[in-house]
Amino acid sequence: MAGSTLRFSLLLAAAFAGRATALWPWPQYIQTSELRYTIFPHSFQFQYHLSSAAQVGCSVLDEAFQRYRDLLFGSAAFRFPHPIEKRHTSEKNSLVVLVVTPGCDQFPSLGSVENYTLTINDEQCLLLSETVWGALRGLETFSQLIWRSPEGTFYVNKTDIEDFPRFPHRGLLLDTSRHYLPLSSILDTLDVMAYNKFNVFHWHLVDDSSFPYESFTFPDLTKKGSYNPATHIYTAQDVKEVIEYARLRGIRVLAEFDTPGHTLSWGPGVPGLLTPCYSGSHPSGTFGPVNPALNNTYEFMSTFFLEISTVFPDFYLHLGGDEVDFTCWKSNPDIQAFMKKKGFGDDFKKLESFYIQTLLDIVSAYGKGYVVWQEVFDNKVKVRPDTIIQVWREEIPVKYVKEMALVTSAGFRALLSAPWYLNHITYGPDWKEIYLVEPLAFEGSPEQKALVIGGEACMWGEYVDSTNLVPRLWPKAGAVAERLWSNKMVSNLDFAFKRLAHFRCELLRRGVQAQPLSVGYCDMEFEQT
Amino acid sequence: MEQRGFGRLRLPGLLALLAALGVLVVQAALERRKAQTPRISASRNQNLWPLPVSAMTTPRLLYLSPGNFFFGHSPSSKAGPSCAILQEAFRRYYAYIFGFDKWPLDSDNVARKMKLQKLEVSVIMDPECDSFPSITSDESYNLLVQGPVATLTANRVWGVLRGLETFSQLIYQHSSGTFTANESNIVDSPRFPHRGILIDTSRHFLPVKTILKTLDAMAFNKFNVLHWHIVDDQSFPYQSITFPELSNKGSYSLSHVYTPNDVHTVVEYARFRGIRVLPEFDSPGHTASWGKGQKDVLTPCYHSREPSGTFGPINPILNSTYSFLSKLFKEIGTVFPDEFIHLGGDEVDFNCWKSNPAVLHFMRNKGFGKKFEKLQSFYMQKVLDMISAMKKRSIVWQEVYDDEGKLTPGTVVQVWKKDKFHMKLRKITAAGFPVIISAPWYLDLISYGEDWTGYYSVEPLNFAGTPKQKQLVIGGEACIWGEYVDATNLTPRLWPRASAVGERLWSHQDVTDLGDAYRRLTRHRCRMVGKQTPSR
């Protein structure tokens, strides 16, 4: 640890000196100097190194070069006048990219290596990475290093960066059931995620309120379960577009189909799927969670999840499993009979376990791994040892810090979300509390800590749609992004505030409607259209 | 208020009886504060926001076709095509109702149905087309929707603007694309004459475009005052003609300023929507940004007998302060046509004054003792006198009254402190001063969930006092202070939360049903979302 402390003090000193204060999230190791190089937009280009495993034709990087060119200089880069005056500083006219391992057409995964090094000095301007995913992270960092003088000249300072993420799973959850989010809102969010080095889009597609995912095996789910089957749906083409857009930015799409609770919207499209609730000895006309007592239920789930496993390429699916209300199950005589038959007594947790286990077996058989909400663990469902448990409850049944200890001591991998529910808004600089969360601040062995694979910022949709999504997300979610990417010791609030405020202005410049952290201004304010 | 003319309405057609009833209602309603329980029609398809005094609808549907509908002036109207406010409003509301596309003139495919082809507008008195709206502007209107010609009658253009908004809310577009409205008769007028939104352009600069969008949304909610808290500690974006250094040095940057032309644009845009622009130049506190461009205007603070290099509130002991302020306010009085100027006067920190030997000396000379409140009163009185001398009226924050300033009669006091604000209302109105309520409506203080219900459930007159005291409550304002708000999040933070305040200030006191409000507000939000983005 001594070594990294020394490194850290070095990097802090470097940061306060120069232009590097613009970086977000902060890299693992950085050294910059006042020495700067001019960049001329009309001649600057991104280039593949001769010995790079990725070359022209690599979709991920070809497109990224184009994107970052536009971000840096605008799409009309060639408008910039050719310099005629004497050059006082030396010039950099390319960033050379060297990727070691081939693989431009794959999907990013939990195991993807995102390390990169960036070397900008008199001799070279080089981005070196193991994979294309690392190159993407490095390009983002490079774009944040470039600055513009008041006269309009672009510069980059002499810099050495060696960077890698602290956690491999850095996610953002969007909820498209409580409110439908237009495709463009999702794509725009993926862009900003990439600016923050997030790498997982957790897509909470469906819930009680609506079923916008258009299933080709069960089209009635959407026809009867969406807010509006003509407009408020995600077609197969939409889903493909999201997945590819995310891939090009090194982002995984983790699809969540939450069951057996949170499924009211499934009911109209699949008669018999939900449990009929009883009032006294008669059906009340309302419905509860998925009916776990029927074979039909599992046949449906088999077919449905076969489709989902094919549509979403990521190894992991999110199967939900949170907040199952037992009241309806309790009221239903068929469920009661089933409980008796199975010998579950009055323990409805056992019934829930039975359902989840059967579902997990189905999904496992399709060669998928899965993530579930913490209740599945809390209710002692027997799950495969490689299951990932997402911790979301702040206080109950135990404080989330304790829950992290429990989950990891049982040998499961854990994802942290509890302190990062960004939809819970409060007055003032609430990003600070979010920023100061330390995911590993629980009592446990180093082996346990190693089981924490990351975390997710969640933007639940009860009060959020495309009218307010962007300002509620950004730059607040950036606080989570840095916590998950940067070194544990990067936790100084003043240092973070300066950079995050600067980063928010950069987001505005890139056209993102990111809200202010405090009083002040940006050179380029958000302009209403 | 003179109210002639409504008796002359000619009411052909089915609704004559209903309309006659309506006239009775409007006359009752127009005697403000005597308004009766609103007559809400039994029909649940009404989505009006804010709810009118009386709205009666029949199940009968009228069909509108975009190519065969227009707004026009009644031959008997005192306003005609030369009235720019109305011509612009006609164009605007046509687009709100039918979208921004060009429709073919004969796209009339509802041949045999009852059609609505025209809204005929009639202004009964001097229309005030070229005037600015004021605190006494008459906003009442009477809207009779029947086929083939609907009529909108009002005493002034201001009522026509409110009625056009209501008319647009009556029209519904079916998924087939057809436009319909139920036959209706609406009689309406506001409960309070001052219904404002406060924006803060000092903590964060708001581009002019954002302000104009806000004015549009205000009109959708029948707000009529934009309280422009234009400068504060953080920045001075107002570009003064007399003292250009104020914004040259005090703004965030030279692109973060409101030029005289910008201000004119805002004032005129607001006028076209029947909205007053109330400028606030808050002093003597909240003035740190003034000091950068105006030498000696702020009090130098002292630390152990030496100037500390920091500055406090405006320096109240120098003659130069008052000659500066007199010139500045003279300019403000000209640039902003409204009868009122907001002088601020809130949250004055006395520490700096206390530290300054010259201020202490002045206090002794004036016999103020240790009461710095008296010094603030001395200052405020001088500024109040300047405003009176310009034949304008002043609004101040509640501290100016708390501090027992000898307030010029007629000065309006704005109550903003939430704690026991009803008690404050009682006290201030008992002393005979008009009040504006903001205390329960600080919309910048966000929380999770449906906080609009809290704003909605406030009853402004829920304090012990005589009817005369209640008359002194001229209205309220929803405030969206700018510490954490700029153009990126202003709109979603304001709307529809401010709409709750809009209805509280417009509609009858008895309109309090949260369930019904939720239903209407949800629809109203969708309507606003649709209006903000031109439909394609």
Provide the descriptors you would attach to this structure in a database record.
heterodimer; A: 529 residues; alpha/beta; Chitobiase, domain 2; TIM Barrel; 2 domains; eight-stranded parallel beta barrel; seven-stranded mixed sheet; 35% helix; elongated; disordered N terminus; B: 536 residues; eight-stranded mixed sheet; eight-stranded parallel sheet; 17 helices
Give the helices and strands, then pairings:
The complex is a heterodimer of chains A (529) and B (536).
Chain A: H1 2-17, E1 29-39, E2 45-48, H2 59-73, E3 94-99, E4 116-120, E5 125-129, H3 132-145, E6 147-148, E7 154-163, E8 169-175, H4 183-195, E9 200-204, H5 220-225, H6 236-248, E10 252-259, E11 274-279, E12 282-290, H7 295-311, E13 316-320, H8 327-331, H9 333-342, H10 348-365, E14 369-373, H11 375-378, E15 388-391, H12 400-409, E16 413-416, H13 431-435, H14 446-450, E17 452-459, H15 469-473, H16 476-485, H17 493-509
Parallel strand pairs in A: 2-3, 3-5, 8-9, 8-17, 9-10, 10-13, 13-14, 14-15, 15-16, 16-17
Antiparallel strand pairs in A: 1-7, 4-5, 4-7, 6-7, 11-12
Chain B: H1 16-30, E1 39-40, E2 54-64, E3 70-73, H2 84-98, E4 118-123, E5 141-145, E6 149-154, H3 157-170, E7 172-173, E8 179-188, E9 194-200, H4 208-220, E10 225-229, H5 245-250, H6 260-272, E11 276-280, E12 298-303, E13 306-314, H7 319-335, E14 340-344, H8 351-355, H9 357-366, H10 372-389, E15 393-397, H11 398-402, E16 412-415, H12 421-430, E17 435-437, H13 452-456, H14 467-471, E18 473-480, H15 490-494, H16 497-506, H17 514-532
Parallel strand pairs in B: 1-2, 3-4, 4-6, 9-10, 9-18, 10-11, 14-15, 15-16, 16-17, 17-18
Antiparallel strand pairs in B: 2-8, 5-6, 5-8, 7-8, 12-13
Helix pairs in contact in B: 2-3, 4-6, 7-10
